[in-house]
């Protein structure tokens, strides 16, 4: 995703999708993604993370359970989309919510949380990635002097200096101290530094979250007071660390010591917020030229009907299920053909319904023919009672008093 254009209160991004081949990593969260550079080449590196358990291992009790991903390192070629995984002996257990720091072709991994043992070991790894003409070479070294932390935030204050703020010591204990990471050639050192004067709200809250804003600034968020009318309200703070051109330590303490006295209902809305526009592009380069597929010749960009308005150059997603290809539905006329759901004026609810039920669909051009060929409903046959034989009389039985007396005595 890259910035395409920016004007007054309007930013346009272009999103390019890359088809991945090879050992594609599974969907995950809590991982890190970095880009390393070596010998004029670039490579995307994915490390750690957490995901749902495999479908074949799910049960009703643990359907939404998650596990740490396998402790593998994935290299993704940004040019061709080739994925390769590497298993390192130094990585014994999976971990997630760690910190990563990249310098050219070296990645440093700090901290993290292991879900299997519910611990935050002081991990400290140095991973070096060489990108020669052949296959990449990945090596790992375990360093000493790591810190125990998860979900922390790191910002750069100088060319070779970084500050680590926030995170957790345990599930119920926030990490209120700060650390400075100093890089010097091939040497790295983590030292504890003076923490800012946290506000009472930050000290007493159970959870906090945020991200790096660049230039030594960090955005912090904490949940709002439960007494507020808006239960999902959050309070935000900006922590400004002293950068290379600003040696003032007072600024770091001053910004985070400002308490929020404004009521959530009286806060000013973001009336001057910027408008973001996203455009989609498709990159079809793959690792093997024989696997390349021309999207213009595929079935998604056909002229499905006389009034088809779907064009590969101007199409934008209409349904929530669409990403980079238009939704299509199969018409059951004769040999059948595919049509765009947008050209058939189908609502999203109807499109979802037709995809779930076992029924035939006919496009607008063939719906009249389908009605003419409609099979009539099967009518159950009428039950016919057997006719009585004509002119057939049953013999009448007449019991005289003598016969009645005889029969009564016989049964007695």
Automatic annotation (TrEMBL):
Recombination activating protein 2 PHD domain ranges (all copies): 299-376
UniProt keyword list: Chromatin regulator, DNA recombination, Metal-binding, Nucleus, Zinc, Zinc-finger
GO biological process, one term: chromatin organization
GO MF term set: sequence-specific DNA binding; zinc ion binding
Superkingdom assignment: Eukaryota
Gene Ontology CC terms, in alphabetical order: DNA recombinase complex; nucleus
SUPFAM superfamilies, alphabetized: FYVE/PHD zinc finger, Galactose oxidase, central domain
InterPro entries per record: Gal_Oxase/kelch_b-propeller, Kelch-typ_b-propeller, RAG2, RAG2_PHD, Znf_FYVE_PHD
Family per similarity comment: Belongs to the RAG2 family.
UniProt-recorded name of the protein: V(D)J recombination-activating protein 2
Source organism: Crotalus adamanteus
